[in-house]
Design a protein that fits this description.
264 residues, alpha+beta, four-stranded mixed beta sheet
């Protein structure tokens, strides 16, 4: 298997888990409010669907630039509300139609990503992305929004080593997290050592780095996706830069989110 195949397999597994949880919900279940204000279970799934379809158009831009350009122009007209509006419109579909469309979007995205020519980067709303990077981003979003759905429905999430993709993205976006808060990135290197769900240790950064972040990988992944308050994790920061990072950690694009209240 190629790296892209491995990433797509993990994305499929994460999406399948969420689909299995929501597949048999009745209308009230789909309308259940999630921790994201104003977003129901249906809206969470619809957001994933919308973004999968957008990513498919980006992956096919080398053959159909007009379709991608039309999406970008629509986003320019409403930069702060465009994505949410698209998700909420799809969320109004009947549950069976929403699921069928999501099934098609997931399969279509995998097919489109595999067809991207070698060495070609896909356009996106931020910097262009390689297919593997897009899958990693889609995994992160699918995992994070699934947590909101599981929280709303009282379902225990499945915690697997697949979250390494989220942890990797969380580490790589350290500079972005400071920048999006208007803060200079601290100069000191940071060593990150996380305990995976399997018990394995995952590490990033120089072994002799003067600062460190350590703790459960699941806590780190929830923190960088802002699905938990730092006070409710077992993460440990050593050094002022590492400590400041955990206060602003964010691996998703866009402005800083409000995060979660302590004790939730």
């Amino acid at each position: 298997m190629t790296l892209l195949d491995e990433l797509l397999a993990d994305l499929t597994a994460e999406g399948d888990r969420l689909r299995a949880v929501v597949a048999d919900l009745d209308g009230a279940g789909w309308a259940t409010s999630t921790p994201a204000p104003g977003w129901s279970v249906a809206a969470q799934v619809a957001h994933l669907l919308w973004t999968d379809e957008a990513a498919t158009r980006a992956a096919r831009a080398h053959d159909d630039q007009e379709s991608w350009d039309a999406l970008v122009l629509a986003a320019i007209e409403d930069p702060t509300g465009f994505v949410d509006a698209g998700a909420l419109e799809i969320a109004a579909l009947a549950p069976e139609d929403l699921l069928a469309r999501w099934d098609g979007a997931r399969a279509g995205l995998a097919e489109a990503l595999r067809a991207v020519p070698d060495g070609v980067r896909m356009p996106w709303f931020g910097p262009p992305m390689a297919p593997a990077s897009m899958v990693t981003a889609r995994f992160m979003e699918t995992w994070a929004h699934a947590l909101d759905v599981y929280d709303a429905l009282g379902v225990a999430p499945e915690v697997t080593d697949r979250i390494r993709h989220v942890a990797h993205l969380g580490v790589r976006t350290r500079g972005f997290a400071f920048a999006t808060h208007g803060i200079d990135v601290p100069d000191a290197d940071v060593r990150v050592e996380l305990v995976a769900p399997s018990g394995e240790t995952w590490a990033w950064g120089p072994e002799d780095a003067p600062e460190r972040v350590s703790g459960p990988a699941h806590d780190f992944c929830r923190l960088v996706t802002q699905r938990v308050h730092r006070a409710d994790t077992d993460l440990v920061a050593v050094g002022p830069g590492a400590d400041a990072w955990l206060d602003v950690a964010q691996c998703f694009a866009g402005p800083p989110g409000p995060g979660r209240e302590a004790g939730r």
